[in-house]
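DM from R.C. (forwarded with permission)

"hey, sorry to bug you on a friday — could you get me a structure for this? deadline for the figure draft is monday and I only need the backbone to look sensible"
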Amino acid sequence: MEVLLITGPLSKAARALVEVSRAKVAANANLDEAAIRAFEHGMHTPPDSVIQAIQDALEELGAVFIPEQGALGAGVRLKFNRSLTKRIGNLENEGGPSAKDDVP
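My reply, with the result:
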């Protein structure tokens, strides 16, 4: 199976979909926020390991990356639909603050 490495624009789109800041992704990926900003704006292409860390952090936060399929380009979508995300959020909020590994 081919490994998908995301692009800067896909990273930015994923952050918008899961509604998190660069700071949150940076903290989850153990990276500097400036590195993510430079990547998303096309100012710098980091090593594959850094891109993978960004992708892993975004996937942990609820993004799913879709590889290119023939003439269709790569994309990003939410791991869960809005209704399910809301129900999960309600359940999580009943037991106190959620942990890092919980669904956003």
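R.C.: lifesaver. The beta strands are 63-66, 75-78.
me: no worries. Residues 59 and 65 are 8 Å apart (CA to CA).
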